[in-house]
Amino acid sequence: MKLASYKDGSRDGQLVVVSRDLTHAHYASHVANRLQQVLDDWNFLSPQLQDIFDALNAGRARHAFPFDPAQCMAPLPRAYQWVSASAYPSHAELLCKAGGQPVLQERAAGPDMVQGAGDALLGAHDALVCAAEALGLDFCAGVAVITGDIAQASTPDRALDGVRLLALYNDATLRGLVAADGAPGVAGVQSKCATAFSPVAITPDELGDAWAKGRVNLPLQTSWNGRRAGLCDAGADMGLHFGQLLALLARTRPLRAGSILGAGPVSNTGTEKRGQWSWPKGFNCIAEKRAMETLQDGKAATEYLRYGDTVHIDMQDAAGHSLFGAIEQEVVPFQS
User: Fold this and answer.
1) Which numeric CATH code is attached to 76-333?
2) In the prediction, which pLDDT does 320 show?
3) Fewer Cβ in 10 A, N or C end of the chain?
């Protein structure tokens, strides 16, 4: 099924069930008002939402209304925990090589994971606010999971069973404030803008065969000012699958329902031919594009986002239908 949170003036929005084709929706107020309620009591409430979803898709929902993605908050507007991982080795490899740094081998503790701010997550059509263009605003397009309760020291298989929903996200980053040594210090924390999520979050079964072994095996489509930036396969080069990432996160503590884990900007491995680097499937963050230029030409030519720029992030099934609805953001200046 597909779930969204409609803007209603509150901080958590109103839970709605959305049809598979994203054309119609139905309020779920007789089951639950907020998505967090459902995550807290998934086994009891989700079958009731499934009934609404089935009725919507069959055209039997009496109070259905046209679905408007622009009215959506993040599916889970306030998360108990928001963590961004770096699950694509090719992303770190590219940036390290362009920066003249040694490529780090995979650590025993797993990939880097950064605690983000989950108190004010953005809807898919909310503006991308930037205090100053000189801060180097970058988009970072990826796939995230929203969990139920996951016990401490869970195995990867058990942790994967805790995945309730998936969503797309844009983890906007101010590259000018990223700590020089990569450490999560004050600069690193402040470098993260509010993260935006797709209009709907979907249960894994909506992906069919594309959801396999904890990976989403579909291309993530990213456009910048109407021009395609990336068409990278979200599953092909994902180093650790979501079950493994969640198990690492729960190694020393349990995870509560309503935790969100992102896998980092989707990245596919490039190739080197005669000294020229090539990433034919594009990029899902500008930092990768700049790294490609540095490797090929000795310096980066592409600028970061400017006011008025637009970012479009989407994922489609084999038939060309949007699965999550698109993230569509415009960069605007901060106004006090």
Assistant:
1) 3.90.850.10
2) 94
3) C
